[in-house]
Amino acid sequence: MSAKLPKENITRGSNGAHKLTPCPVFIGGEWREIGGVGTSPVFNPSRGETIAEVPLCGADVVDEAVEAAADAFPAWRDTPPVERARLFFRYRQLVEDNFERICRTVCREHGKTYAEARGSAYRGIENIEYACGIPSLLFGDTLENLARGVDCETMHQPLGVCVGITPFNFPAMVPLWMFPLALACGNTFVLKPSEKVPLTAVLMIELLEKAGLPKGVLNLVHGGRECVDALLVHPKVRAISFVGSSPVAKYIYETGTRNGKRVQANGGAKNYVVVMPDADVSNTVDALSTAAFGCAGERCMAGSTAIAVGKAADRVLPSLVEAARNIRVGPTDSEAQPDMGPVITAQHRDRVLSLVAAGESEGAKVIADGRGVKIADAPNGFFVGATIVDQVANEMTIAREEVFGPVLNVMRMADLDDAIEIANRSAYGNGASIFTNSGKAAREFKNRVKAGMVGINLGVPATMAMFPFTGWDESFYGDLHIQGREGVQFYTQQKVVTTRWFGDGVGDVWKK
Ligand code: NAD
After folding, report:
1. Which domains does the chain have, with CATH numbers?
2. Which residues are CB-contacts of 29 (< 8 A; sequence separation ≥ 6)?
3. Of 131, 138, 442, 444, which alpha carbon lies 20 to 30 A from 501's?
4. 248 CB under 6 A from ligand 1?
């Protein structure tokens, strides 16, 4: 059954009853509302209300989607790169034209503030822009006269059906890390967004369809483990891009590669921010507060642990505590925007609170406490206020587990060597930053710290579309990272063609 495309705004009937937003799949160019093997609620975390029921697709629907993508591949592969790029020029414009709609959908199903939704959606747009450059990005190399009369060239060809499995925390941006570049390279695609935030993905694909997407080139399925497992073993899937937590990233990598697929799997993180005694106080406090509490701490690049070196704690902590206490928390689905929104679910809020409680019981001190926050006009929202936990030691649960909430750990170290050693003991390796006025300290840090993305006087050193997103260790499983030239390499396979033409054949016609 072909369904009407979903409206992104909250709809209420004349009697005030809440209507659920449709959440269809998109397969072979058709929008369909299906039952799946079950459903899962999508919340507006600002209100604690169910706003949609997402169908959980089983192996049958996954098979349909992959087959549709496989059928669409030959014609799409043969579409010239300049034409594929034009699809994304049109798409970019449509995303810009519908920017407010997209951001409001992100606010509504994820709980980001409008400013955060805008910022992250723009990071996504930059990935569309990068994909628009595909004719130049696909250039190969040539060497004339590799041997006498022999030339050699490299070509970059698409793989076939690629899959994207995305997390809840960036509903617009992370899917845009994947499908624009994969499609621009000539692949077809099946997207499986987080079942917690499927509505933004529906809207993003609705816009791609309007831009002129040929049938079957991009397909959308929904669901959880069962759906993912069917994608991981499907014989026609060639490559899998994954972003989510580390245990799942590892599982996706191991299962996908065991089934012969190319896999890039981004995992979770614990990012250290070293504050040296000579750091500029007001800039450091602003940056640290944004790094720890921006997006309610639900960022893989959140600066979740500050390591204060020497007198840095005395210089920075009083203002940081004041900044945390001044952060206004509230619902993000209305005009009056707060500084910080809710976390994704009630269950996740409870996990964040229990990790803070564990820190306290293991000897840490809560010096800014957002646990008791109450929002009068949104009593059922999933809120946690900005929280700072001081005197955290490396063996504590809160020091080791990714909290993924608005919680900043503070550790105190005597010198930079100790700070780097603590940061380097982490199992993860996504981001790390240093705040200092010393070039020598910054140089030492950037060379020695064990993390793939490093910031100097910058709280969130997340890379933009033209650079790879270079997590290390348990923050990444695979070889080629998402974004940038590595992204192009991931979504293509290289062919080397060596050519010789014989002298006495038809090649000599010009002499006659
Ligand atoms: P998650 O791992 O729970 O889910 C991610 C995706 O995997 C979802 O689509 C989900 O449906 C699917 N999934 C969940 N459990 C599964 C299972 N057992 N088997 C198969 N598939 C499964 O992650 P999340 O809670 O949605 O997102 C938050 C996590 O993502 C955090 O750990 C965060 O650090 C990480 N993240 C990492 C990056 C990065 O680039 N490194 C970026 C954003 C988020």
Report:
1. 25-267+475-496 (3.40.605.10), 271-456 (3.40.309.10)
2. 68, 209, 213, 214, 215, 216
3. 138
4. yes
